[in-house]
Structure formats: structure tokens, C-alpha cells
Amino acid sequence: MKRIFILSIFCLISGVAFSQVKIGLRFSPSYNINRVSSLSDTLILSPQQATFKMVLGIVTEFAFTDTYSFTTGLAFAPKSVGINFAGENGGSHTNATEEYKIQYLQIPALLKLYTDDYLPGSRIYFHVGAMIDVKIFDSPENNDYVFIEKFLPVDASAVLGVGTEVELGISTIVFGGLSYNRGLTNMASKTIALDAKPIVKSDYFQLELGLKF
Q1: What is the pTM of this model?
Q2: Chain centroid offset of residue 138 CA
Q3: Rounded CA separation 56/199 (Å)
Q4: How far from chain centre, in Å, is Cα 28?
Q5: Cα(173)–Cα(197) distance, integer angstroms
Q6: Which of 155, 161, 154, 182 is nearest to 59 (CA)?
Q7: Rounded to an integer, what distance in angstroms lies between the CA atom of residue 138 and that of residue 110?
Q8: How far is CA 92 from the centre of its chain?
Q9: Could you tell me the sign of the dihedral formed by the alpha carbons of 167, 168, 171, 176, in that order?
Q10: Among 110, 43, 118, CA closest to 70
Q11: Cα R_g (the chain), whole angstroms
């Protein structure tokens, strides 16, 4: 098993070494949606309305062939968590809303697949993979908000997307597409005491725009 692992790492490094590398910029207007749930018998939770955010960063693409590549990078990604509370068994005596803002450094790990040109210098791509978000800041919108006491330092999501890219010259490519990030981890690591732990996850619908050089 150890030999297989070492061989796999060697093959990956060798593939990256012999790949063509493109570096670019990514601008992603994002529709941030929360998924909130709990099995508590004393408090009913629901997500607040979705919010618009802007994700900005760089991308690095390692092209192994004309039809597939590996994409990673680094981006600044703000998120928000909004939770509505309803009292015991839907009662009204504990109704409240709390909002939190969180900022991440986002690291994608995506397999990107390309079609043949549908027009000269233009082709469609599909990507699938994972997104790792490393928390750099979090804060409640109001100091009186106490429901979530601590957020996980790392968030993860599954990614699926489609788009197109067009060559503008010998070394410049513009791309645009749509992407869906589905949160996989419970962002809330510590909350106020309930009879059941709440689950808070974050999803993104993103419009991806950018340039590669």
C-alpha cells in the first residue's frame, strides 16, 4: 500500500511537471444560500433569505491534454449565515433572527473537461471537484447574537459547473460559466445548548467570469 501511494504521488508530480500551465483571474458574483436544520423539540430553525456576494481570486490550470486539466487557485470568498428562530413547537414567544458574516480563503481542486471547438477558438467545458474554504474572519452582525458561538475553521463543498472559453489571442483566453457549490460540512462547531445539535451548511450559485494568460 505504501508503494502504491508513493507511486501515485510520483505520477501526479510528473504529470504536473509536464503539463501546460495557465494563470488567470476569476470574478464570481455569487448567490449565497444557507441550509439550516435541527431535530430540536424546543426550537424550530429556518434559513434567512439568500444574499449576493462577490468572490475574487486567481486560478491556476494545469492542462495535461487538449481535453482535460486540473484547476486550483486562491480566492477571497465572503459568506453570510442568517437563521430564523421560532419558539417551542412553533410558538411565538422565542421568535428571533440572527446573522453572521464569515470570510474565507477558498482553494478549489477541480477536474476540467473540454469539448472540441464549436467555433474556431471557442469550446465548452465542464468541471467537477471540491472546494476547501479556510476561515480567516467571522463576526456576528450584532453583538447580542449568541446562537453560534464558534464556526469551524475549514468548510468544504462539492462543485459542479459548466461554461465556455474563447481565445482572444495567442496567450489570452476569456471564460464564463455557471457553477454550483453544495456545502458538505456543518459550519457551526459550537452553539447554545439545545436538545439536538443544529446543522448549518452554505451553498453557492456562481456566475464565473475571468481571464487566463
Answers
A1: 0.85
A2: 16
A3: 27
A4: 11
A5: 47
A6: 161
A7: 27
A8: 35
A9: negative
A10: 110
A11: 21
What is the grid cell recorded at 78? 465572503
Helix, strand, coil percentages in the chain from 3-state DSSP, rounded to 5: 10, 65, 25
Counted residue by residue, the chain has a size of 213
The pLDDT-based confidence of 28 (bands split at 50, 70, 90) is very high
- Compute φ and ψ for 115, nearest 5 degrees: -90, 175
Position 33 pLDDT exceeds 70:
yes
CA pair distance 13, 16, nearest whole angstrom: 5
What backbone phi and psi angles, to 5 degrees, belong to 189?
A: -85, -25
Give percent of the chain with pLDDT exceeding 90.
Answer: 68
Measure Cα distances from 34 to 28, 97, 98, 213 in Å: 18, 14, 13, 35
The residue among 151, 150, 165 whose CA lies nearest residue 202 is 151
Three-state DSSP state, 17? helix
CB-CB contact of 125 with 165 (8 Å): yes
- What the block records as the C-alpha cell of 148 is 453560534
